[in-house]
Each structure stands twice: as C-alpha cells, then as structure tokens.
Design goal:
It is a single chain. The protein has one helix at 37-56. It is mainly alpha-helical and 65 residues long.
C-alpha cells in the first residue's frame, strides 16, 4: 500500500520526507543511492525532526522549520 517510485524503487516522499502512509518517514539509501554520507545524514536529521513533529502534533502533518 506504499506508493513507490518507478525510477528508484523506493517510496515516494514529500518535502518533509513523509511517505504515503501517515506517520512514516523515509531517508537515505532507501530513497536513492547517495554518494556522500553527509547527504544521508542531512536527510536522516530532517526525517527525524519531521517524525518527532508528527508525533508531537497528534499525527497531523506539521512542518517544523
């Protein structure tokens, strides 16, 4: 039931790295192959912040700046 990208085979995510199932976020090599670990770390940080914001706000979509 997860929307997958035909290009990468990974889940489709929005700007906050949320996938098509509420409360689930994806980052790193599950989305696409990264050449630099710095890129994976940045995505992981964003996904973690977004997951925490989602949990704090009772599951509503919330963008934390």
């Amino acid at each position: 039931g997860i929307e997958l990208s035909p290009l990468t085979g990974g889940p489709v995510v929005d700007a906050n790295l949320a996938i098509s199932l509420p409360g689930i976020f994806a980052c790193g090599n599950v989305l696409r192959a990264h050449d630099l670990v710095d890129d994976v770390s940045s995505e992981g940080d964003l996904a973690g912040r977004q997951a925490a914001a989602f949990a704090r706000h009772s599951g509503s979509k919330y963008k934390e700046a």
